[in-house]
Known about the structure:
Shape of chain A: globular
Number of strands of chain A: 9
Helix content of chain B: 40-55%
Structural class of chain A: alpha/beta
Radius of gyration of chain A: 22 Å
Shape of chain B: globular
Number of helices of chain A: 11
Largest interface: A-B, 80 and 84 residues
Order of helices and strands of chain A: HEEHHEHHHHHEHHEEEEEH
Radius of gyration of chain B: 27 Å
Structural class of chain B: mainly alpha
Distance between the termini of chain A: 27 Å
Oligomer: heterodimer
Number of strands of chain B: 11
Helix content of chain A: 25-40%
Strand content of chain B: 5-15%
Number of helices of chain B: 25
Strand order of the largest sheet of chain B: 3-4-11
Amino acid sequence: MKFNRRTVLKGTLGGGAVGVALPLLDCFLNGNGTALANGSALPPVFGTWMQSLGFTPGRWQPEQIGADYETKPEMKGLDPFKKRLNLISGCQYFMDGRPVETHITGVQIASTGAIPVGVVSAPSIDDTVADTIGARTRFRSLEVSLTGNRESASRRAGAASINPSESSPAALYARIFGPEFHDPNAAEFTPDARVMARKSVLSAVSEARRDFAKQVGAADRARLEEYFSSIRQIEHQLDLDLQKPAPLEHCTRASAFEEGVVGPVTDDVARNARTFGGLIAHAVACDQTRVFNFMMGQAGGIRRAGETENWHGWTHEEPIDPQAGYQVIVAWFSEWATQVFATFVGELEGMKEGPGSVLDRTVVLWQTDHGVARSHTMDNLPIITVGNAGGRLRTGLHLNTPGDPSTRVGLTIQQALGVPINSWGALSNATTKTMTEILV
Amino acid sequence: MSLRQFLTLASRALAAPVMLGFLASPLSAAENVAGEASLRRLSADQYRNIVEDVFGPSLDIGGYFEPDLRIGGLFAVGSGKIGITPAGMEQYDAMARSIASQVVDADHRAQMIPCTPRAATAPDDACARTFLARVGRLLQRRPLADTQLNAYVAAARIAAETTGDFYQGLELSLAGMLSSPQFLFRDAVSVPARGGAQMLDAYSKATQLSFFLWNAAPDLLLLDAADRGALDTPRGLAREVDRMMASPRIEDGVRAFFIDNFQFDRIAVLTKDAALFPEFSAKVADDAREQTLRTVVDVVLHQNGDYRDIFSTRKTFLTQQLGSIYRVPVISNAPNGAPDTWEEYEFPADDPRAGILTHISFTALHSPAGRGSPTLRGKALREIVMCQTVPAPPGNVEFNIINDTANPMYRTARKRLAAHASNPVCAGCHKITDPIGLALENFDGQGKFRSAENREEIDSSGTLDGVSYKDARGLAQAVHDNPAAPRCLVDRLSSYAIGRLPTAGEKPWIARLQQAFKTSDYRVPALMRAIAVSPEFYTVAPAPPMTSAAATSRNGETR
Lengths: 440, 559
């Protein structure tokens, strides 16, 4: 199926959606896919930040709706970005009679809009967005985990496999800025004969590989399609390696650094979040990727050095402080985590591109697994979006949409980024309603 | 031609766009005795074993592997469901190139490549063909079809022309083979057998057998047996099974199963709070895993003993590092400066420890970073050792009373959990887990012995399915005597072997294996042999006809 501006506009209206998507397709980009044809803007970037364990009741949700709200303590860390973010309260995850797998189901709905049946899930939102904005870059998306393991919430269409995260900043550095990185601003470019040879080998054995799919059943054939599309990324990388990259004024190779401890202790998580943020910002400025996913500790194994209990343990085991009226240590973790997230956002802002920064063309979707971790609630979820994706979203608002599926936010972002869909999610988590207040 | 024959043929003729979807259900309902064959992605260990078998132990693989997926308690089952992501493919591609470049480098090429090219700066199809056919048979675990071999020879030729170097050409072609689906996935090609069933063909049989017994690809002798058709007769198959069972490599197979079943992959990421448990380190964690594997292999393989004895044996193997946590002297006669050696050790009859459940690999693995957990340990025992399912905690539960360790009313985990279980929503599941886990309360979060918590003496008594005991040794004996433990082993080992959960039609086979295991007095090698010579181990359901969606995707883009 071919899309153009007109068919998408028509199709979306035909589907009765409130918001209208004007997709940013490659035909609107200049020949290099690096800037809009009129030279006015760089392409949009999408990121996700998945953070376990929600926020503390009464300590995050503003009293006021709209622009002039007063920040509550667990959002304070993001005050420097208040005008550039939206806070959405009131949304909920719907179970449709399925049992709650605590800390898992929420992440599944947040990332894919649905509870999977069996091991194969719907694609995650980053995968759908990457189809539209990420197909031309060296990495379709980059996944990062902040606590030392390989978990991520990113899943490809029709696959049981999870896109593995990088947990080591040094490994991510090597992937992006290792020997295979071509500086787009280098004066000289010589295509590497070895790369040419690798490309010919791939095409010479392509049919021999395809033969394998002929002898398997339908389920396996779908799994092999995932393999073949992964191979296409390799081919695409080789193609890029053989072309002189278009100059990107603001691209610089990230400088090498000394890797510290990778693991779930708060100080290490905070330091690595900053380092990863810097690497991703450089990768975006050099157009190595336009999609990234951050996982901040599924089920919250994060802990403070020397303590017997981790964040998740505290949510269940810390008594409510009678004076304060809430769990004091858990609240500390939430404030700390917001600060870490703000540090990460600061790295995107610190990567300057002319008068603006990488953050200006990015939207990051922050979601969590439970509203209140202590009792595993699935309603009144905090959801945060940071950045306006190059003017595609309005920001600075607190929206309150009690009882709506969380997928409204994801649908809104997907439409803003030009993904040609007019509904997202499954069963009660499905929605066709975008958040028109923030859709430009 | 009967309808059944027609359908079988039609479903195998995948090149034609067969539109038989509407007939698929009646067909599979009638014949779905075995499960559908599925490709299994190589595990990291299997990948390493193959590279070592084919190219020797001196290669550095580099790179890292995609995470596996555990289904029904086993990665082996998940391996039939997972694919390869773009990030994973980058790694496979990098490893393939790294391995291939070492194979052809100046240090290795003389041993690895059985011929010398006419000129090192130009293609040489004949030499490339000799090499690629030989390694191709081992890597793809069957002889390469002409079209396959021609493609790889052509790839070597083109790459040699482009780079002006025969060896670089061969290297890149070999790298292509190492990142091919034929290498990364274990195939399951089937042919019609009697009674409308499908049987794996000789090479897929060899693959099924070899990964089960050795956790490695078929060796040359097994491939030769497949060539001769020997695996298609009961006698020929039994001869190969017996040869492989008699090889020391059977230990690799036994270890691989227990690593998977005991979820020992998690040991690699196990950390303890350094402030609370300064003796615990990554080295201790590795040694703890090895200790349990040595103990299990000693019982089930070297002694050919009763499987259930792994839960009660006092004999084990220790390093000095482990000795510091077990608080026993480990005396090594190795020369000063030698790496840690393993010493046999027997816990005294009155020691609180007996069997693998009292090992660090169990008590520390199933505990959070800073303390022990009766609930996690009880859950692990139920799920891993007895194949029972403990439900996840429900939503919307208050946790006010429990685990306020500062409360003088509740100094021990037993008291805190009792307070917690006064909530009826929680009580049901905690009754399943806690009485087991509390018996291990004498072992703290890193598995070290303690007699008191918060200065209050620990009561480690409990019951397991009606059997009462007063401490961990009693629990060990109760698990040893509980019929669920050996039953679970048969369920897990058979699923591990076939790479999926059994179908309803395979239940009689599992029941026969259960009986055989009992009759053999719970000998694991006898059970492995019984599985390996069973026709059921090699029988698969006919593949359902191709859907039109799949037909489309073969011809073009993924989506």
